[in-house]
């Protein structure tokens, strides 16, 4: 990870200096900043001195990593403590580089007479961290709790793989669903806003990867008392593939797509958590055909929340599709119009307008209303046509193979 570029200066993109600098070559980045902003020589010397300390920290990070790799092969579980120290050190390196960038931005703002507020130090900053730096923190958060389990190479007993599963009675919205709902409404929007303010909408692949990981957590909470079976994951993959294929098949008709309808069907037929994961995967994979960009995380979240809420609202209607077809179509149209459209129009303000104010939001919502109406009407149409047959098939698969039981 230390071999990648950690610091980005967008203003140097078309200059003789590199627009992004590596951790052990931050002096070159400091020289580019001095050339672009005509900073005092004392400031450049201070930046070079800080870069020297960061280079020393990088050497310590490499040494800790190599020692951990060596000990993990020799002593297995006893290397977990050193491994945690190495990953925490790497996360601390991100904090140190962020301090260096923030200090540089503060000095540049003072030179230009700008106020050192949150926006000028994040979204409109001169020096920014790339996704590689923040990836260090993500890796540490993911690996620290499970490091001992990853180092344990002993074979598990076969009984752990094939546990007895009994169908449980659905007693309403449980703690697992509430936890998933809180995670979806807090962590995922926080990651998207983090990408806007601290990554300036440039590292959308990194943000999309974080969203996929967070989308998988609520889904795998379904298997809290047993291991997931391959056929259960395959059904999710098939539904996501159908949504991607449906979006590609109707590429010639703007906004007239069956993606939201298929995601809602997945949520209703297989559970709210599965609906969110299907929507997130469909938004990410389909954009490999339609084009990836800073809008991808917003689409992933919007499709996912539509599927999650559909599964949550109609969770007690399984097996009685004919009696609530009308309500399902009404929900599909309103959710696309009021949730998906609202989120994507909000994303357009952050991505395409220089100033963020009330007038910008109102103008974007008004201009996007016709396309949202078309998308909502398409969702109603596809739910009316595909809803009953697909839901009946999913119900048959669920009962026959005993998958995704509550």
UniProtKB/TrEMBL annotation:
<feature type="transmembrane region" description="Helical">
    <location>
        <begin position="204"/>
        <end position="222"/>
    </location>
</feature>
<dbReference type="InterPro" id="IPR009825">
    <property type="entry name" value="ECF_substrate-spec-like"/>
</dbReference>
<keyword id="KW-0812">Transmembrane</keyword>
<dbReference type="GO" id="GO:0016020">
    <property type="term" value="C:membrane"/>
</dbReference>
<keyword id="KW-0472">Membrane</keyword>
<feature type="transmembrane region" description="Helical">
    <location>
        <begin position="295"/>
        <end position="314"/>
    </location>
</feature>
<feature type="transmembrane region" description="Helical">
    <location>
        <begin position="122"/>
        <end position="147"/>
    </location>
</feature>
<dbReference type="Pfam" id="PF07155">
    <property type="entry name" value="ECF-ribofla_trS"/>
</dbReference>
<feature type="transmembrane region" description="Helical">
    <location>
        <begin position="326"/>
        <end position="353"/>
    </location>
</feature>
<feature type="transmembrane region" description="Helical">
    <location>
        <begin position="85"/>
        <end position="102"/>
    </location>
</feature>
<feature type="transmembrane region" description="Helical">
    <location>
        <begin position="53"/>
        <end position="73"/>
    </location>
</feature>
<feature type="transmembrane region" description="Helical">
    <location>
        <begin position="373"/>
        <end position="391"/>
    </location>
</feature>
<protein>
    <submittedName>
        <fullName>ECF transporter S component</fullName>
    </submittedName>
</protein>
<keyword id="KW-1133">Transmembrane helix</keyword>
<feature type="transmembrane region" description="Helical">
    <location>
        <begin position="178"/>
        <end position="198"/>
    </location>
</feature>
């Amino acid at each position: 990870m230390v071999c990648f570029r950690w610091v980005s200066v967008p203003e140097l993109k078309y200059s003789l200096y590199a627009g992004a600098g590596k951790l052990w070559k931050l002096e070159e980045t400091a020289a580019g900043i001095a050339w672009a902003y005509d900073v005092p020589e004392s400031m450049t010397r201070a930046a070079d001195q800080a870069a020297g300390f960061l280079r020393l920290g990088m050497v310590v990070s490499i040494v800790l990593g190599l020692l951990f790799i060596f000990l993990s092969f020799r002593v297995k579980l006893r290397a977990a403590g050193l491994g945690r120290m190495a990953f925490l050190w790497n996360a601390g390196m991100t904090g140190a580089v962020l301090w260096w960038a923030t200090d540089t931005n503060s000095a540049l703002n003072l030179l230009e007479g700008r106020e050192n507020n949150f926006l000028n130090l994040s979204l409109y900053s001169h020096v920014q961290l790339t996704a590689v730096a923040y990836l260090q923190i993500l890796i540490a958060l993911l690996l620290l709790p499970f490091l001992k389990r990853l180092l344990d190479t002993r074979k598990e007993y076969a009984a752990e793989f094939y546990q007895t599963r009994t169908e449980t009675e659905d007693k309403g919205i449980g703690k697992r669903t509430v936890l998933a709902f809180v995670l979806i409404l807090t962590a995922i929007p926080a990651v998207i806003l983090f990408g806007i303010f601290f990554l300036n909408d440039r590292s959308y692949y990194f943000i999309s990867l974080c969203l996929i990981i967070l989308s998988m957590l609520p889904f795998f909470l379904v298997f809290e008392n047993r291991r997931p079976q391959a056929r259960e994951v395959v059904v999710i993959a098939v539904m996501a593939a159908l949504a991607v294929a449906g979006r590609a098949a109707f590429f010639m008709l703007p906004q007239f797509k069956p993606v939201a309808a298929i995601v809602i069907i997945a949520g209703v037929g297989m559970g709210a958590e599965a609906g969110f994961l299907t929507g997130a995967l469909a938004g990410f994979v389909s954009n490999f055909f339609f084009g990836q960009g800073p809008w991808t995380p917003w689409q992933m979240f919007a499709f996912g929340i539509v599927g999650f809420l559909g599964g949550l609202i109609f969770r007690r209607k399984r097996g009685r599709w004919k009696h609530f077809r009308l309500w399902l179509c009404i929900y599909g149209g309103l959710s696309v119009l009021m949730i998906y459209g609202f989120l994507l129009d909000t994303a357009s303000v952050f991505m395409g307008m220089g100033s963020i104010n009330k007038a910008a939001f109102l103008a974007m919502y008004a201009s996007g209303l016709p396309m949202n109406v078309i998308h909502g009407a398409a969702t109603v149409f596809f739910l009316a046509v595909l809803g009953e047959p697909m839901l009946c098939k999913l119900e048959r698969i669920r009962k026959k193979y005993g998958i995704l039981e509550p």
